């Protein structure tokens, strides 16, 4: 598309200028302007004229320049579009501009999603795993349960990470399907008591968890979290083991371990204080403080936050560019950055799982889980 709306060549349509609108910030307006540049498809002259007019109205107010001559088609079309906005306020024009860009972006991303969705790899029931454009995407796929992680899903994620480590992809992404990124451990994991009793359940759980986290510590390629919505429990604690974390502004980050009678895992007892400092880590890990995406960014847990309406598009454009970088260079640099901490992280993982094994046998933990299923206490 011709990115500047000033290059419009054809006459113009009547524009609607009325209707109640909300105030949009300069920042949102600037973002919309940037988004427009990312559109791949030309939206057509009519829309470009609308955008031009709204932009001028939003930044300069009503058109006061003299009407161009009849033969100066381009200037006349633009002038007509701008003056047709009459006395529309700058705020309203900004809102309409943002809304129009937003609708263009969403319609383009939905058509792209339809066109480019590759076949999911076979053998996964709880995940959708695809490799395209040098990116292996592991999508948690239990949207109706907010992507809560069952024991089967832990195993499938381990398998998907093992395969991604070996495949041709350059980077690996984990994201969630639906409105949640992940609601953490599936609390049903603790309700199916096996023949060996509750001790066996806790022991097996700790072994599985340690192996699961180990795969994140040892993952050899850049690992990126695309946090598409709220994240709870283990899906948050693991973020310290990712190399980049992109989040929608709709995401929240909640580790309600003490409410659940449990304790931190995913190496967060070590990584969170390192990332955000001890007192902020304590607020999250001891006192269940739920962070907004903006707060998580301020604490360094999240790399960048994107408006929800452009999240998928912006993030995937960025990731596709990253995935064109030289594969070995990225993997070796990651090893260099992470290598020094690996031994420490394995030791932390082991300690965290040991403590959790004990916690799962506690009344505090059992009562909290029963309470969830009794629908007495939602987080
Ligand atoms: C075997 C290895 C074990 C390793 C364990 C490692 C340690 C990990 C610790 C953690 O991750 S602790 C955190 C655990 N997660 C939670 O406590 C979250 C519990 N869920 C909620 O509080 C809420 O569901 C929600 C996430 C805040 C969403 O609330 P909302 O009202 O929007 O939706 P719901 O109607 O509650 O959910 C829809 C549907 O999904 C089920 N569900 C959601 N999360 C979980 C979960 N974590 N475990 C089991 N089921 C979950 C929920 O029950 C609903 O099901 P239905 O009622 O529709 O059948």
UniProtKB/TrEMBL annotation:
Pfam families: ACBP, ECH_1. Keywords: Isomerase, Peroxisome. It is found in: Peroxisome. InterPro entries: Acyl-CoA-binding_prot_CS (IPR022408), Acyl-CoA-binding_protein (IPR000582), Acyl-CoA-binding_sf (IPR035984), ClpP/crotonase-like_dom_sf (IPR029045), ECH/Chromodomain_protein (IPR051053), Enoyl-CoA_hydra/iso (IPR001753), Enoyl-CoA_hydra_C (IPR014748), FERM/acyl-CoA-bd_prot_sf (IPR014352). GO terms for cellular component: mitochondrion; peroxisome. Coiled coil: none annotated. One of its GO terms (molecular function) is fatty-acyl-CoA binding. This is Enoyl-CoA delta isomerase 2. It comes from Chrysemys picta bellii.
